[in-house]
Sequence to fold (220 residues):
Amino acid sequence: MAEQYLLKVLEIIGGAARESLESFGAAGKLTAEAVRSARDVRTWWPNLTPQARQLGVDSLPIGTLIALFTGVVLALLASYSFTGAVPRYLVGTLVQKTVMMELAPVLTGLALAGRVGANIAAELGTMRVTEQIDALETLSYDPVAYLVVPRVIAGVVMFPVVVGLAMFVGLGAGWATSLGLLDLPSTEFLKGARLFFDLFDVRYGLVKAASFGFAVSVLG
Fold:
């Protein structure tokens, strides 16, 4: 009885591991096909601008809204957590570092993963069911170059744009909250924001956003 139970558990674990490896394999195969099909510029170039607008420009309100509330909450939390022994201008430091390096790319990426990933999956799934992809193959179009490549490139390019705006909005929301609700002068907030600022913070957040854009578009 114990042996049967152990075999059942191992079977479940093995099945889950196999499905995960199959998913990684399918994603890797699709990525390789997209890299190969990227040479067919004439096929994917006309679709790049519409996909960039759909994946990036249409997602700006979501990224802006998330960053707005993130900056407000961070400023309030920092002011609440800091005691008299900690200089208040470090509120600006906390908001700047946290928004640019972590929360702006991560929270925006999570929100766009639902919107963009579901949109891509639904759109291409409908095209598969209605045999539109088969029609592309009949017309001698490469479906990967026509459908996958522009979406992947648009995701890699436009996710950092949305996250860059989210960084700016989040920092501005933290500044406005500090000024209006915490009675922290602008000079003090900016002093803290500039104290440990490094261009690496911006590059780190944008590279992370580009990796999220690639993962979301490929998985979608």
Q: What stands out?
A: Residues 38-219 form one domain. The chain is about 85% helix and 0% strand.
